[in-house]
Amino acid sequence: MSETTLHTSERLKIIGYEPPDESDWLTGLHPMDGLLRGERLPHIWCQGCGLGTALTTFISALQWLEKNRNWDLDKVSVVSGIGCTGRVAGYLRLDSFHTTHGRAIPFATGLKLANPDLKVVVISGDGDIAGIGGNHFIHAARRNLAITCICVNNFNYGMTGGQVGPTTPHKARAVTTQYGNYEYPFNLPYLAAAGGASFVARWTVLHARRLSWTLREAMEHPGFSFVEIIAPCSTAYARWNPEGRGLDPQRLRRRGLEVMKHFQKVGKIGKNIHPKDATIEVDETGLITKIVEGKFLDNPSPDLRAAIDQQAKVAEKRWLAEKKALDERPMLPSRKGPVSRTEVQLGGFGGQGIMSAGKIIGQAAAIYDKLEACFTQSYGPEARGGAAGSQVVISSDPIHHPHLLEPASAIIMSQAAYEKYVPQLASGGTLLIDDSLVSICGDHRTDIKIFGIPATRIAEELGNSRAANSVMLGFWTAIVGAVRKKAMRQSLAESVPPKTVDVNLKAFDVGYEKGTEAKAAV
Ligand code: SF4
Known about the structure:
Helices cover about 40% and strands about 15% of the residues. Strands 1, 2, 3, 4, 5, 6, 7, 8 and 9 form a nine-stranded mixed β-sheet that branches. The protein has two domains: about 35-305, Rossmann fold (3-Layer(aba) Sandwich); about 340-520, Pyruvate-ferredoxin Oxidoreductase, domain 3 (3-Layer(aba) Sandwich), CATH 3.40.920. Strand 11 (about 370-380) and strand 12 (about 385-395) form a beta hairpin. The chain has helices at about 10-15, 20-25, 50-70, 90, 105-115, 125-130, 135-145, 190-195, 210-220, 255-265, 305-330, 355-370, 415-420, 455-460, 470-480, 485-495, 500-520; strands at about 75-80, 95-100, 120-125, 150-155, 200-205, 225-230, 265-270, 280, 290-300, 340-350, 370-380, 385-395, 410, 430-435, 450-455. Helix 7 (about 135-145) crosses helix 8 and helix 15 (about 470-480) packs parallel to helix 17. It is elongated, with a radius of gyration of 35 Å. Iron/sulfur cluster binds near residues 158 and 234.
């Protein structure tokens, strides 16, 4: 039997039409009272505004899902931002959140990630979603976050008086563009689809039934679903534009209706339309001449949560392998005796391994000497060749302050680092320099001990100039002695690329030997 031969009641059943319950007439309740906060009514929206229709279509979609899909509406949460549409959250008898301007999507993101079973719906205006919160919108789409985002587009910032917004049509008037909007608006379906949304649709409030069906589908969609609702703003927008017949105060109440009639005239429902062709066209006066409507995209794909879970499995596998390797690495017998807090400053330029050297010291102290250690680092603005510094704090007691207060020793491998860090060295401290790169100034400090080693030259002679930091580490270990030699060698061996382990250990040993001689000579 074809659809056209069906009885009206059967046709209504197919489209999901729910006749009002007779008890509503007896009790005087509105069929939507269950989902409306009556105590918050009357609402603040202007006469003729499209928001009432947007809200009731949303409620009817929820009621249908509750009845036909057994949805538990206690597991539905609505998030709004600021603006006329933002009020929706407050009128719904659901767990709803009226958040800050433009931040409905970040709020919804947290809500969804922390409560994966919750159905989270963002309902906000075009200024909120595409203007102030535009960045959040494209990133939620890109992540295919499993929320439904409903943007009620009234073409302007209505609540604040009708300023031009990101969806105001070109040449249309707004309170801040009295001679016509010189900017071009977003095509929101195209923006959402280009961002990565997997469900994209647009309807005007005039197509309430289709809109309600689409909202059902959008809310059942597993990924990021986006529905744009074009709604007349009878007050702030329609007063300046031909759709609402301008400023005539006598027509105030009728503006919304006139805009709806206009939408009926210019609305073009399309099938299989690419989102980029979901245009809203205007004429020379900014009058809307065409609104393409319909469902433009419905492409279920793994949502953010599924992607996280999938990657978490990979990460867990790798972490277990790394943990096994860590658990199985050879350990040293415990170090005897306490070590009072000592601070080490390392300085040089990018590419010398200043960060790696600091990390090797910290790791040797924490893992092999079983002390407390804290490592921090700082970079200059340049990627390579710029200033580089790292700091290590070592102690057998807990370290409550990770930054250096009075470094007792410094490993310095550039003249700039010498100028920068040596003044901070504690009186009586130990300065170790790569004297193939650093010269001691005439007015150098006389209250510190200074030891020099041509680390870069030694490393070059060993065949790898990048092992100069290992020479300095051996030199520092012999002279300062804050970490055991074996601990440093083990930490070094596991920190450098496998094929350079030998040359780095050789460099360390040469530095250690020179450090032992230098110390003995004092
Ligand atoms: S300002 Fe416009 S969008 Fe806001 S409530 Fe009034 S008519 Fe609706």
